[in-house]
Design goal:
This protein has 155 residues and is an alpha+beta fold. Helix content is 16%, strand content 45%. It has helices at residues 2-16, 133-142, and strands at residues 31-39, 42-43, 46-47, 52-59, 65-71, 75-83, 86-95, 103-107, 110-114, 128-132, 148-154. The strands form 4 sheets. It has a 4-stranded antiparallel sheet, with no helix packed on it.
Length: 155
């Protein structure tokens, strides 16, 4: 009887144990937020010459590319997205050589960020430089990509 009781209890102990399997991490909960794409013509060291226009391509809420050409600066586009989201903006400042002033202030100031009514100047990438029209045109001939930019951000 003792042997039978030992076998039954031992069998219950072996079959009654449950393995502890790790709980999988839950999927991140989608969150709806506003993301701002922005390009400015102002900096702490001055304002860019007003002869520049912007050609820009950005990703909309569906991840589709949207292109706007010849827009004036400053430019800002707010998109309501569902995170996780990979935001991307590709831009180029363009100009008409005949409209350039004798002294040209130029540069690239761009940002992708959570929307704010006012985006702090410190959030922008890049700054401005000043050159004579002649030197600016020489620089653009040597470095045609100098006024182009690409910025990406995950939200």
């Amino acid at each position: 009887m003792f042997l039978l009781a030992t076998l039954v209890i031992g069998g219950l102990m072996l079959t009654g144990c449950k393995k502890n399997e790790p709980t999988p991490d839950p999927e991140p909960t989608p969150t709806t937020i506003e993301v701002a794409y922005a390009v400015t013509n102002a900096s702490t060291n001055g304002t860019m010459s007003d002869c520049f226009k912007l050609n820009v391509t950005y990703l909309d809420a569906n991840g589709q590319e949207v292109t706007e050409n010849g827009v004036t600066l400053p430019w800002k586009k707010v998109v309501t997205i569902t995170s996780p989201f990979h935001a991307k903006m590709v831009g180029e400042l363009v100009y008409n050589e005949e409209e350039l002033p004798e002294t040209v202030v130029f540069g690239r100031r761009y940002v992708i960020t959570l929307n704010a009514d006012e985006i702090s100047p410190l959030q922008y990438n890049g700054d401005f430089a000043t050159a004579s029209k002649e030197n600016f045109l020489k620089l653009m001939a040597q470095h045609p990509d100098r006024l182009q930019f690409t910025v990406e951000q995950d939200f």
